[in-house]
## 1
Amino acid sequence: MTEPLISARNVKKYFDVGGGKLKAVDGISFDIYPQETFGLVGESGCGKSTAGRTITRLYEPTGGELFFNGKNIYKLSRREMQEVRRNFQIVFQDPYASLNPRMTVEDIVAEPLDIHHAYKNREERSERVIELLRLVGLGEEHILRFPHEFSGGQRQRVGIARALALNPKFIVCDEPISALDVSIQAQVVNLLKNLQDKLGLTYMFIAHDLSMVRYISDRVGVMYLGHMMELAESNELYKNPIHPYTKALLSAIPIPDPEIQKNRKRIILEGDVPSPINPKPGCRFVERCHNAIDKCRKETPVFEEKSPKHFAACHII
Amino acid sequence: MENVLEVKELKISFQTFFGEVEAVRGISFNVGKKETVAIVGESGCGKSVTANGVMQLLPMPPAFFKGGEIIFNGENLLKKTEKEMQAIRGNKISMVFQDPMTSLNPTMKIGKQIVEGLVKHHKMSGDAARKKAIEMLELVSVPQPEKRVNQYPHEFSGGMRQRVMIALAMVCNPQLLIADEPTTALDVTVQAQILELMKKLQEQLGMSIIIITHDLGIVADVSDRVVVMYAGQIVETGLTSEIFASTKHPYTKKLLASVPRLDMSRDEPLYSIDGTPPDLYIPPKGCSFYDRCSEAMKVCKEHVPELSEHSATHLSRCWMNHPMAKNAYSKDGGGK
């Protein structure tokens, strides 16, 4: 068994808001192995983006430990952290908002290189930028252009080139395709897959599009209101979901085939995701769960291995 | 089947600083009674412009109707005055917008917004209107309607707001409901709730629905017929089963292949359509999909493909499907 590249242990991130604590991420644990893609899914407000940012320590964690290559990075000082941070990067959701409109593509892609003094002279800098742009399917002719001159898909490629600048080992992709059109989504997903093979990258892929997550990920975690509900290998999770929330979530995805769609039985969940501010004890899903028992209201279920490599947090399994 | 709406050769353009943008370039389709028609396509293909055009909600100028007819119950809507349109809008045809967060008035109580149309169109009294508002909230399954009716939009979640939008659209019992990406801003579990609700209401009240979406899963779920748009034109139209089972246009085929399906193997490559849709400042002379089509021929660049008929309901606009195409091939002696 290979050693995990990333192991999160009981990671927590609370925000202080008027009227209490918003428990965005409330004690999640998982491992990510080298060169795999770990998918993280859930509805909006479940804490998946916060999880991505807390793991890369863009948000200071409220608690927990995060081991990267065996080192707890939450204990590092600012200076040490900067050195380690070269190894992990983020690709953001909105390619329209995450690129500075006043910088040229060259400066955007070279910014991480500037910060880490990763070149000797200007030629080396622009050579590296061109190399990165080629890697993501853009070219030399693009370096002096500004973000507004690109389409959404191309902008996302610029964002990916920037993330690759320092040869990171681990990239958090925070909904990298949800702002793009269907036909462009496939382009970006294929690019991410190719880069993974070529450069040996490890991804954490955050999305709410479950079919896309299944397609790209080796293992998938399902979050609900700050808790991890279920985690398993991608094929296993989708074929054989055990948590009631995962079951409902999967049955809610419309399948693009009228024959199958007509004969499917759907589990329609009542209501919405409750507020994560001062959540009640017990299972987070209890109010929308069809199978809830008394114990679910009193005790928070433990996230544990229910069958080999298949984790879930539920009392009734 | 009797048609509620017939759109004939509709052309809508926008006059901009850089010139004319031909957003909708001669589309024709119809919607039958109690039927659900889905319009699919990428952003910028003209699907929302079509919907807003039917409602005549486009800002004019810059938008203008360049030609065509929109026939609703036998009358051409483009010949109506603004005053006559007001009697139709929200009353006979109503619309649900994409973003429930911004399309409700934040300073008005929910109940008042729901019955605004009734008070306007049917001169209903205050008391009766309030009762009706509660009834409508019940219809769209909003819990505690008596209490909710006096609340403001910010007190509702996204899914609940979209229910309110639907209640608001349904209140005058319209013959046609246009839903422009009604679930795009919502989570999948809530999306499933809203789609179920729309199906239920259609059965109860017997209206026709045009649903605009880019999600082929939703199309398969709710629609009877599908209109596929690309760069302001209809490239393929047919019964939902025809579109999914015997796809004829390369664009539709690729669109279907580019979404991962839950039942597909993870090793299958995901098909991607290279390039981007054409710029409609200078619409292409021939087929608008020419640049991105892997099966493009010489004729596609020069001439807009004619409609070919595959069945009484299934049409596509591609030279490959033209009855003359195969003959033309062999006459050239070219073959492959």
Note: Chain B has one domain: 3-266+295-315+322-332.
## 2
Amino acid sequence: MKVKSSTISLCRRTLYESISAEMMVRFVRLLDPEYDLHARSGIPENYPITNQMAATRIVQDIIDDGRFIDFIETLVRIDADGYMGRPYPIKGLNQIVKTLSLDGFLFDRATRQFFENANERASPDWGRLRDGDERQAAVLRLDVVENSALVKRNSSEHIERAYADLRAIVHRSVHARYGRLWLWEGDGALAAFVFGHKERSAILAGMEILNELFFYNRLDNPLEEPLRVRIAAHAGPIIYRDQPMELLKNETLREVTQIEARSTPTDTMSASANLFLSIDRVIQERFDPERQTGGDKIRYYSVNLEKA
Amino acid sequence: MPPGFDSAHGTVVNRDTTELKNHKPMSGDISYINIMGLDDTERRKSMLAFRRRCGQTAWAIADPLGEIDDPASVFFMGACDYLGPMTFKHGVDKARGRDVRAYAQSRLENDGPRPSGATPCATVTAAGAVDETFGGWKSVRPGAVYPFYFLFVAVSAQMNLKTRLGESGYIAFRDRLRTQTQQVLADAEPLLWMETDTTAIYLIPSTTRSARHAMVACLKLLLNTPVFGYERLGLPFPIEFTCAVHHGSTEFAVPGKTGTIVSDAVNFIFHLGAKCAQAGRLTLSSDVDRSIIPAALREVFVDAGAFEGRTLVHSRRFGAF
């Protein structure tokens, strides 16, 4: 991530005017437990480091390591909640938050996290992840049922329109919840949620897609038949890779594809057990009871209409 | 008729006088007249009679032998489809049926009612089709009487919401609910007209377009209630929406100054919403033009009996059954 020099200066000043060099290092170690200021700056340990020098070095290292946004989030948390029972008010932090907003990041006060402003850009790494970063993620896999047959039975113009509409529905549901579409093949999509309430976001996005398709198939679908999908939601560790093909080698992504393919009925979303436990009861109640299917513990959601 | 043509595409009426006289299309129907074997004068007469007979509903021409020299002329007369010899040869598909309905609907919305002495269909109330244009809420004058669609929206939970959320939490919830509901209904150009502690009455312009948007928005709201309540309203417990729509005329007053309004339609929508409409459903009174329900969503509605002299339909519930 590129950080403007004015933002760098502001961050340095904020640090050295608010906290000591020792506390700066402790805060950096919340992100990088191995961080050694003396080693990174080349100053021997028996030489004292001034607050200004520490701030300059730390801000530069944090930017080089691609952790600038994470560091600001940490400072926001410390400013609000204190650290180890002691308050550490950090002057000028609001100004940094405002500056980042101008750089295309939105600050969500509920989760105290920065998100890329999806109206400006939506990069697969949220503008924050680096190749090799390991994160807990919730993932959503969507597959269009009988894609090949649909393509054969309908004109290419209608197929293109229907798929563009589906993409728009999925895009809206995923991006509105800070998710990212990592892959869009001809007949399916893979979306990831890494920040915020990720499990909840994946589940709600899947529900919304099915709900939207219920109306789309009845009101706007140009095809001769309904557009039907299978959706699977799953959670687990992900190692982020810049290359999509490398990304797909993640075990969690393989698992979600398997759940979708072998355990998900048409027009249904399946949620794996490890993801399902993280969501609130009010949403859990909309799912069927847990079933053991194909070696997976799964709960299902689908649009059901009361019998006439 | 062409291969693939079935009742979903429309009803076919032959030029036979008795059949034409007995033809009574319902809202949303598409009627085709077969003009095979007619000379120019007879054809024109039949088409005019057929147009009158169809009134506000869509009508179209079946011309298996290609006897009409200028097929475009039938569209100028108000037809919404023309099945020519090539169509009879190659057949029609469902997409064509949908396209015809969409064209007929857009034509109705753009042209408004035809001034040809058309007789409204049995299910189309006079008020329902009076004015298909809406000039914005600023053009509606207080003190004057207008036809409107009245939309009743109420939200409820198992436990009293005020008790559950506390006074200040409830006020914040109401603000969020108001904003979010108006966003959901935005395409219907609603006006939040009256509001009590637990209910709201929206005025919807008396146009098919707005009423249809409002109806679809309500159904989407009912289906999305769990997501809407949890995510947009921030409620950690389930809620239910009750929606009801009625059509009628009332004197208009600006929101906040509606205390002196005396109107049968306003009374009815309050009674309907508070006493009869069920949570989790959208209830429509018989005064609501049924053509606002797109054909593909008719399966969602079922009869709901009668209330205060009007028959009702309501939507089937969404959820786990």
Note: The longest helix of chain B spans residues 167-185.
